[in-house]
Amino acid sequence: MGALAFPAVFTLPFPRHVMIMIFLYGALATAWNIIAGYCGQIALGQAVFFGIGAYTSSLLYTRVGLTPWAGMIGGVILAVLVSQVVGYPVFRLRGHYFAIATIAVGEIVQALIINWDAIGGGRGVFLPIKRPDSFLNFQFHTSKAYYYYIALGLLLLALGITRWIEGSRRGYYFRAIREDQDAAAALGVNVAREKLRALAISAGLTAMGGSFWAQYLLFIDPESVFPLSLSILICLVAVLGGVGTLWGPLLGAAVLVPLQEGTRVMLGGTGKAIDLLIYGALIIVISVAQPGGLMGLFGVSRGAGSAR
Amino acid sequence: MSLLSVTGITKTFGGVMANREISFDVKPGELVGVIGPNGAGKSTLFDLITGFQRPDAGRVTFDGHDVTGWRPDRISHLGVGRTFQKLKPFAGMTALENVMVGAFQKTSDVAEARAAAMTALEQVGLGERAEAHARGLSTGQRKRLELARALATRPRLLLLDEVTGGVDQATVPGLIRLVRELHATGLALIVIEHNMRVIMEISERVVALQLGQVIADASPAEIVRDRRVIDAYLGETWRE
Fold first, then answer.
1. CA gyration radius for chain B?
2. Does the CB of A299 have a partner CB in chain B at under 8 Å?
3. Which of B49, B50, B70, B73 has the highest number of chain A CBs within 10 A, making it the mutation to test binding with A?
4. CATH class of the domain at B4-79+155-238
5. Cis status of the peptide bond prior to A132, with omega within 30 of 0
6. What percentage of chain A carries pLDDT values higher than 70?
7. Minimal Cα–Cα distance from B53 to chain A, Å?
């Protein structure tokens, strides 16, 4: 309820921007948590789906005039398709090999987009500014409150889907695969199919985040929406908060995003990597002192609590 | 009519023949023991039957279906359960959740799966540990947990890889009683076991392997008198 009233209390753009970023990263990390935290597949190529979401809605808007809302759905569909095509061979790998392969896929896709002139290449895509504010155009220039509620909605969708997975057969299958995929297979779990489903859900949600991002900034390029650093940041946020728990990724975002935005504001261009240094230190501290992530401080271990 | 037919299966790992033209049958409700020295190919045989390995040659037929080369989950759905020699608990999940994964094969309803899992846990004597995390269980309890998990899939044939291996002597009789109880329910079992007293006590038939080949397939009474089995596995002390 507090989250709903926030824009009414904090009317300045900056606090709202920080909250929007918390919701966005919270949603992205929650989406990653489905494939990595619950299903145990350390995918480090989430930027691929984020970028697909951003590019699909942006290009459909600038080239075809389709509302970004429909473009967002288009992005989800494309991201899910790509996740299945790429996931099928990559899921044959286990452990580190899987993680490395997903990094490679991310790098390949980014290189492809940079060199794909027909969709802007390295120059990216500018979205034309439309006034007045319009829900249909997904552009709001007078107040960040609209973006705030849309980002909150995205976060709630990601959390809701996670909650639903946790309480259903699928969630048990995901966690079983994380713990031991051979044992899961021996019990009748179609391991390859379940992994693909986890990735599809994760990819779709991540693509929605990408479309949102494009509409929020109105400019995208391969460096900003397809970078490996984004895939890793998503992972860091979730790991810091606590993987395999419902609230962990959001908690991680609530800690890291203000840190990132705060150092950016305080140090400006000179402090460019300070936030990353602090992240690094935080991750080391957390992994030594509290391997379950910040959620561990509350006595919540991953994947527990749904079998009461 | 056999429940399981293994016909001439062969499996080679980089020049080592782990299984060489192995053939044997299991009838519905039968309890077959598998013995043999380390490296005789017992666990490979289980992997070939349950789809974790694909044989280079030969066929595996279960309940009239040729399941050779099928994925493990499909074979499980047909009614073949198994445990692993190296235990594979879902360590971060509770005992009940572990077993629920098996129970979900027959229902997608969480409450039903939980009830079925609880029944299976009680059947193996782990009912009181339902809420304990699997990583907190003793080896003997983990063996029972694997058993409960496999039972929750409601198999018609259960493959047990080393029921009493690695547990202390005090827990052995309980595990044996459990296997007998399961057998009494009409379940067919194939049991790999190193403890000869156990295998002689529970098996209706014993298949002896050596260097990937079947060297004997007979009743327990005949097995202990078999020249090749004594030489390969039992040693001189078994000769009166």
1. 18
2. no
3. B73
4. alpha beta
5. yes
6. 95
7. 12
